[in-house]
Amino acid sequence: MWIVAAGLLGLAVSSVCVGVLRLSRPLFVAPYATLTALFLYAYFRWSGVTLWTEFRRRWTWGLLGSIGISALVVGNVLSQPVSGRQQGLRLALSMAWLGIVYGFADALLLSVMPVLAALQAFTVVGWTRNWAGRLASGAAALCARLWVTLAYHFGFPEYRGATIFAPAIGNSAFTLG
Predict the structure, then answer these.
(1) On the CB side of 122, how many CA atoms lie within 13 Å of its CA?
(2) Residue pLDDT, tens place only, 125-154
């Protein structure tokens, strides 16, 4: 139910804040990050999962995966049309607000939480005791992450069509990394 709720939260926040209220990205981040933080706090309290413990588990594989994915992301970003450039304090604020706050909220809600919740559920029912179960659990966790990502992005008017597949593919790469 937490996975379904995560998707519905993302859909509701993006639909209302961007689709109805037409908030700019910097303004959208405030309600999105706040509601995401409250939701994640409730999930982590309920589940007993601690981010620090999860971060320390297999951190070397996570670091290696993130380096590989970062190379792909940098290549993708450099292939995009150049946008307006900011400088000085404006650049620093944008990097902190959009890069760190927005990025952290997105990463936790769209990738980390659905995968952790799915794997936790499959562990409880005993699916992760053998390799076949682990593979099935991993595939199901990626599907859970896909649901949350698609629901969240569907709330943005620009993603209501074939363009919704771009963030789904990009987020898949991040999650695998």
Answers:
(1) 23
(2) 999 999 999 999 999 999 999 999 999 999
- Start-end of H helices in the chain: 2-14, 25-47, 51-56, 59-78, 88-94, 103-106, 113-124, 131-154, 165-176
pLDDT in tens, 23-52: 999 999 999 999 999 999 999 999 998 878
b/e 113-146 (16+ beta carbons within 10 angstroms → b): bbbbbbbbbbeeeebbeeeeeeeebbebbbebbb
Spatial contact of 29 and 97, defined as CB atoms under 8 Å apart:
yes
The pTM (predicted TM-score) of the whole model is: 0.87
Residue ranges covered by each domain of the chain? 2-51+89-176
Helix (H, G, I), strand (E, B) or coil at 156: coil
CA-CA-CA-CA torsion sign (127, 133, 134, 137): negative
